[in-house]
Amino acid sequence: MKNGSCPNINFTFSDRFLPPVYILVFVVGLIANGWGVSSLLHNWKKLKIINVFVLNIGLADILYLLTLPALVAYFMSGRKWTFGDALCKTMRFCFNLNLYGSIGFLTCISVYRYLAIVHPVRVMGRFTTTQSVAVSVAVWLLVSVQSLPDMLYVKTSGNATGKCYDTTSSAFVEDYLKYSLGWTLCGFGVPLLVALGCYGHVAVVLCRPNATDKVMKQRSLKLLYILIFLFSVCYVPYHVFKNLNLAARVSAKRGVCRGWFNEVYLGFQVCRGLVCLNSVLNPLIYLHGNDDIPAPLKWLFRRGRRVFGRPTSNTGSVPMTEI
Predict the structure, then answer these.
(1) How much is the pTM?
(2) Which domain holds residue 234?
(3) Domains in the chain, number
(4) Which end of the chain, N or C, is less packed with Cβ atoms under 10 Å?
């Protein structure tokens, strides 16, 4: 929402809330993803199908994390953007690549898990690491094409110390709302339904009495929990409040101000902080099922589980499946 469009909107909240969140995400996310990506690259010859997708999620996270220092400087200066229009658009483009690339690769992981568990005979030996690399390239291209229209919208206010909009200026907010709704449906809604459908079916199959592979059951259910957590905390609130905030901006531009506009704006700022947490939480997908985790880290994970009262099982000697 543009400053001054409606009274009683707390526009200074984001200047106080977002910089500490971005700093925390930058430090923790860069360490976690840097370690995860380097471990996967170190074991490239043993890289399995799902880990190819996890590697791409890590790369997308690092690409986005490297833009956070500029965002921190922007908000700490009272939202005065001094780095030019090109960098503003590049930064927003990297955010979209990270967000929708992560969603796309999570969906690929869900589909591969579904095929491996629900239809193991049909897919046995038919999927290779090379094919997963080709699918990853397709995901990058699709997300890039999907993100390109966003680059056509105005992202800065046009002066040396202007704004760097995460969406666009009020002059084009009506068109951007339509674009955002379509983007939410295609880039988020459809992948969400696919992922939940796949893992819902997987959960049903693994919870049957004749499901004998307890290790596969445990890992698949854990991945389902991580997926649900990522979508419910990071992705769903962001898309809901983003579109509500855009709708409020459209109404404000038309001279209609509602009492709930401030709550929507504050909620959207909180969701902007939550959505960037995916760059910290995504490494959990790698850590929960990788057999090459160093022993000290495994010990820390077991200790953490004990602290929270969760029982552990010694599955370190069981090889990870191909899919």
Answers:
(1) 0.85
(2) 13-291
(3) 1
(4) C
